[in-house]
Amino acid sequence: MAVNPTGADMKAFLAAGPDQPIVMLNLLRFAEGGAERYEEYIAHFRVFAEKVGATVLYYGHGAEPVVAEPGQAWDAVLLVSYPSRQAFSDMVRDPGYQAGTQLRTEALTEAVLQPTIPRPA
């Protein structure tokens, strides 16, 4: 399973509107020992997220699901607000950010990065 976006993924992502604000939903499944490794990644990530104006809205470990098909439970959820799709793209292209992405790759066996579009409540 892929845990990081490809160039083609990012091209399609930006084509949907580079100036559009998003909240990125991250569904995370850890490798053995991955929870601790992901904590290292989060510390690295926060530095570069702040540079592009992104804010971590929530990070938490999963509990037993109330409603889910077998295998749908996730180890953790991360929600990050980005001022634009372009800001997310700029962050993931930053060489400093890329230098720490191996932490994320080593921590995860599976991930979903789902951009969401904020709506009025």
Automatic annotation (TrEMBL):
It comes from the Bacteria. This is DUF1330 domain-containing protein. Residues 35-109 form the DUF1330 domain. Pfam families: DUF1330 (PF07045).
